[in-house]
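Budget justification aside, the reviewers requested a transparent look at the raw inputs and outputs of the sequence design task funded under Objective 1. We therefore reproduce one unedited record. The lines immediately below are the structure tokens for a 242-residue chain.
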């Protein structure tokens, strides 16, 4: 059953979700908050948008036009309902389409691309979720990392940027794919649950036709040793008005 949830920290913003599908997570919230947006970025696209949380948060950071692309019809419908509920139809467009097909029809159109992709390769030993919707969201069934990077190269303008959140243990795969598809890695930000634990997530920024030069940014640590959220983590739930 669909439910209407608050987007914590964002006044008067709500999102439609369904417990049978993949709900938005911290990964998407971090990506939507940390992706650098330039004043000249007029068109933004979010691959694998799910229920549209990234476009919703981005709408509070920028006036740019935002497109969310989602292959699963049920999730795309939820995203469309959220856009309508928040009266953002003039800024956000949700399209139910395979990213691979979308990229062929939108060559060199976007200034910035965001993506919270499926994290896991599908191998013989892979343990897949029972729900088809959740399998598609978590595993590289409908699209692979290689295909996402190829599609990003197609839709981005020269010097346009891609910002992705992914598992830290896939970092080398991501850097290799970025460079192979002429998306020069520009910055990396590791995410840690606490400073005593290993990083599980990483934010990566690349630039199409960009110059060589990679920055390793200050890490995001979510919790203090006593279990309390860090100040930086708390700020993720504080609205930034454009």
């Amino acid at each position: 059953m669909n439910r209407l949830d608050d987007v914590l920290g964002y006044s008067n913003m709500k999102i439609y979700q369904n417990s049978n599908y993949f709900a938005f997570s911290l990964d998407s919230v971090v990506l939507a908050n940390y992706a650098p947006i330039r004043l000249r970025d007029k068109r933004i696209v979010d691959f694998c948008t799910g229920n549209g949380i990234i476009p919703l948060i981005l709408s509070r950071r920028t006036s740019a036009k935002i497109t969310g692309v989602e292959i699963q019809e049920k999730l795309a419908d939820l995203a469309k309902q959220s856009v309508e509920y928040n009266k953002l139809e003039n800024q956000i467009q949700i399209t139910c389409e395979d990213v691979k097909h979308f990229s062929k029809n939108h060559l060199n159109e976007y200034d910035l691309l965001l993506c919270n992709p499926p994290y896991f390769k599908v191998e013989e030993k892979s343990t897949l979720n029972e729900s088809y919707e959740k399998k598609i969201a978590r595993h590289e069934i409908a699209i692979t990392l290689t295909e996402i990077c190829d599609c990003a190269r197609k839709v981005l303008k020269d010097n346009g940027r891609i910002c992705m959140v992914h598992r830290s243990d896939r970092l080398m795969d991501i850097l290799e794919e970025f460079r192979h598809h002429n998306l020069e890695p520009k910055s990396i930000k590791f995410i840690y649950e606490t400073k005593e634990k290993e990083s599980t997530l990483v934010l990566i920024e690349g630039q199409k036709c960009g110059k060589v030069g990679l920055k390793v940014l200050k890490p995001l640590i979510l919790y203090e040793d006593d279990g309390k959220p860090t100040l930086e983590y708390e700020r993720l739930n504080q609205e930034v008005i454009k």
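The two ends are 34 Å apart (CA to CA). Residues 2-235 form a domain with the Rossmann fold fold (CATH 3.40.50.150). Computational costs for records of this kind are itemized in the attached budget.
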